[in-house]
Amino acid sequence: MSPRILPFIMVLAAMAMVPLVSTSPFYVNLTSQVAIAAIGALGLNVLVGHAGLNSLGFAVFPGLTAYLVAWLSTVGGFDPVPAALLAIGGTLAASMLFALVALRTTGLGFVMITMALCQIVWGAAYRWTSVTGGDNGLSGVPRPGGAVLPLERPEWFLWLCLCVLALALLQLGRFFDSPLGVALRGTRDQPRRMSAVGYDVWRIRFVAWMLAAGWGAAAGLLYAWYHQFVSPHMMAVTASAEVLLMVVAGGAGTLAGPLIGAALVVLLKNLASIWIDRWMMLLGVTFVVIVLLMPDGIVPGLGRLTAWLRRFRPAPAPALVPRERTDG
Amino acid sequence: MPRMTTRAAACSWLAATALSALAAWPVAAQQPPIKVGFMTVRSGALAAGGKQMEQGMEYCLAERGGMMGGRKVELITVDTAGQPATTKTRAQELVERERVNAIIGPLAAFEALAIDDYIRQVGVPVISPSAAAEDLTQRKVNPWFVRAVGTSAQANHALGEYAAKDLKLKRVATIGDDFAFGHEATAGFQRAFEDNGGQVVQKLWPPLNVADYGSYISQIRTDVDAVYAAFAGGNGLRFLQQYAEYGAPVKVIAQMTTVDEGILKSMGKEAVGVISSGWYTATQDVPGNKEFAAGIRAKYGADPGYYTAGAYEACAFLDAAVKAIDGKVEDKQALMKALRAVKLEKGPFGEVTLDEYGNPIMTVTIRKTEEKDGRLQNVVIKTYPKVTQFWTYDPKAFLADPVYSRDYPPAKNLGK
């Protein structure tokens, strides 16, 4: 296990060091955004990569949580932490209801139904102006913290995001290796056989759905705390598609893929745009290149690349073995 | 000895010039440029407005030779893509990475609201060139925010009164984009119209991205005196065209962006006769607009519109404030104070002052769209000077009421 988690520890440590190196909080905040996006992408990866359920409505989980925590901690008058717990609880409860509808289908049907569910919540956020503020959204969402944990400071907030990200990686890594994780991949590849063998496919998928919802909710909570503002835009179809893009570009079904995909999307969107005016085009071209060269994502693609390169490496020289003297 | 005197005079003049040049030169050279962040939209549905904003900004800076208050201006333009989250990150980039002295932008109200808390925290002066959300200068006044344009409803109060008093309309149906800008504009119109004896008997809200207005147009009642339209972006163009295809049974009165110059150039006969109200139209006769409109037309080949004039005005605000503090923009508090005290004698909006909430008090005109000089123009038919965001209402009572929305003020005459 330890050689596998070593790269993750190094990446997380590098991200945690950004505040010590960077001269401006801009890069610290950008790293927080990468971490938040990665948590969301990891959640979606459970569905897309391991359950084989492509969702185009993932933004509903972070969206619901963000709206709940925003409403509870501004209009509702709750403290940030109880508001956060209630928001995550509320999201999980709503997700159970959604599961009853969404998990009746697979394939294209699942894509459409998840999109529809997300659109319903988006529509409520957009139209229910008296509660949600309509497209003006809810602003002034307070971050928790105080003297011990000054989360209003960018570096502390980044470290919180990284802690959650580490938890997500750890939990999901263990889950994917567990018998349940293997069974989940079984339902992805051979749902009928799994069913025939005696596995309850629906229940296994339900676990995956709730895991995705849980990590999506965590990402949404951090999103609301980070931006201190929510608006219906975060539940638009494009927002869901962006998370899907992160998973697919990074490599669905791998643990590192969503992390790399999230970093790629967030950095291209926010860093490349500093130097390149046509950053949208750059984003598009990058994904076309990824799809052409590494159709299954960056992580599997790089794996194949190193394997291919290894073929060209000269065979190691035979070790010199001292010959026994025979003339003695 | 007259010769000596001349020589002495020449010498002393030379010395004085050299000295003053020496004294002035290092100061000018050492002063770094004023960094201005400019948030525009270059992609997505709002890109057309963003482009006009960039033109207004470019024109304003060119007119001032790239200088404000004796210092060079470095403009850092960022594209928010019309997304609130991206806008926030772009604002962080401007403040934390570029360390700008002031921000002009963003375009949309929801973008401005997305960075509202952030600019409070970091304390950077922001001038809005187009975002019109009521509460930004009403119930949620931000000490670091001033607006170069009016609120959504500011010009619509005037139209409401004009429709009731001058046009003698009794019953009006409204149709508007189903988002905050449409809601607030319609609410302002409804309030002033009903307070002057009119009745709003129907309110329709087609979604912002609706493909076809047919199903809404067929619902518009034909037993009304007029239909009030509040559309943003390219929607006014599409609505008026489709309304004309349905025979346009009743006449149209409109909120300013419905027949804005930015889309007027793409319109045809369907726009002729539309009566609208606003704080800007290319033809309005206020001090400074003639030169501005002619300059924009010469440089970009099109009439300036809402976004062009707004960005220009925001830039002019900053220029005036920077001048007032002799270019010392490093003192943020002083710059913000100067911005709040800005008084412009001339410009696209004419004479402008700010109220205590940071919102302009300016001339609002009632215009009629006509074909003139081979193109459609909004010809001014009535002028309301010094209109505030509160119209004739008492600011205290106004602010005690809820913010304008889809349901406020309540429409009591629906279905009558």
Automatic annotation (TrEMBL), chain A:
PANTHER family noted in UniProt: ABC TRANSPORTER ATP-BINDING PROTEIN (PTHR30482:SF17), HIGH-AFFINITY BRANCHED-CHAIN AMINO ACID TRANSPORT SYSTEM PERMEASE (PTHR30482)
One cellular-component annotation, GO: plasma membrane
Membrane-spanning parts: 33-51, 58-78, 84-103, 110-129, 156-176, 202-223, 243-267, 279-299
Pfam families: BPD_transp_2 (PF02653)
Protein location: Cell membrane
Protein name: Branched-chain amino acid ABC transporter permease
Source domain of life: Bacteria
Keywords: Cell membrane, Membrane, Transmembrane, Transmembrane helix
